[in-house]
Write a structure and sequence with these properties.
The complex is a heterodimer of chains A (119) and B (111). Chain A is mostly beta strands and 119 residues long. Chain A contains no helices and eleven strands. Chain A is globular. The model of chain A has no long low-confidence stretch (mean pLDDT 91). In chain B, 0% of the residues lie in helices and 58% in strands. In chain B, strands 2, 4, 5, 9, 10 and 11 form a six-stranded mixed beta sheet that branches. In chain B, β9 and β10 form a beta hairpin. Chain B starts with a strand and ends with a strand. Chains A and B meet through β4, β5, β9 and β10 of A and β4, β5 and β10 of B.
Chain lengths: 119, 111
């Protein structure tokens, strides 16, 4: 089945640094990927839709200059948390649909997430 | 927000019992999906039900959808300790649209 790989799975860094998270579709091409954020014991909150070859679409309230998204190829999207601060600490998860599975109404395939801890 | 609520927020049952989780949403949808998340992990897709469907089965899972009430339920029959996880419903307005998640239900199955 379709697999989405996310890297790294865990990162700890100092406040003020930038952190890049990668999301790869391993056995399918994804023109669209989604980035979510999840706080402990809460649901997933959609941050942005990553579009291959064009600008990402950010949800209301998400700072695009803070969370930089690049979708340079059909199998890779990256999320860069710039000048990270402790409040950015969270669980970040990406997902993608496999268009080869047919028309719409396909499930999303999720990466295993990245736990980001900013000291 | 497109998504409404899920209830219960937390559910604890004995192994072998059935578990029922409910989900409500606010706007019209194209499909509704249920996902499972083990602690600290990504999400696993369980089942997708289209807006023109009323019920769907997959193994021990049974999902219903009532578009008139804008609600769905997930039934897990003969629960097992391994079913312990958080369960989320998620909706899309169109077949290719982004997916918005509900708050989730934390299920604990006691051996």
């Amino acid at each position: 089945g379709a697999v989405v790989s996310q890297h790294p799975s865990w990162v700890i860094c100092k406040s003020g640094t930038s952190v890049k998270i990668e999301c790869r579709s391993l056995d399918f091409q994804a023109t669209t990927m989604f980035w979510y954020r999840q706080f402990p014991k809460q649901s997933l909150m959609l941050m942005a839709t990553s579009n291959e070859g064009s600008k990402a679409t950010y949800e209301q309230g998400v700072e695009k200059d803070k969370f930089l998204i690049n979708h340079a190829s059909l199998t890779l999207s990256t999320l860069t948390v710039t000048s990270a601060h402790p409040e950015d600490s969270s669980f970040y998860i990406c997902s993608a649909r496999d268009p080869s599975q047919g028309g719409g109404n396909q499930p999303q395939h999720f990466g295993d997430g990245t736990r980001l801890s900013i000291l | 927000s497109q998504q409404g609520e899920e209830d219960p927020q937390a559910l604890s049952i004995q192994e072998g019992e059935n578990a029922t989780m409910n989900c409500s949403y606010k706007t019209s949808i194209n499909n509704l999906q249920w996902y499972r998340q083990n602690s600290g992990r990504g999400l696993v897709h369980l089942i997708l039900i289209r807006s023109n469907e009323r019920e769907k089965h997959s193994g021990r899972l049974r999902v219903t959808l009532d578009t008139s009430k804008k609600s769905s339920s997930l039934l897990i029959t003969a629960s097992r300790a391994a079913d312990t996880a958080s369960y989320f419903c998620a909706t899309s307005k169109t077949s290719y649209d982004k997916v918005i998640f509900g708050p989730g239900t934390s299920l604990s199955v006691i051996p």
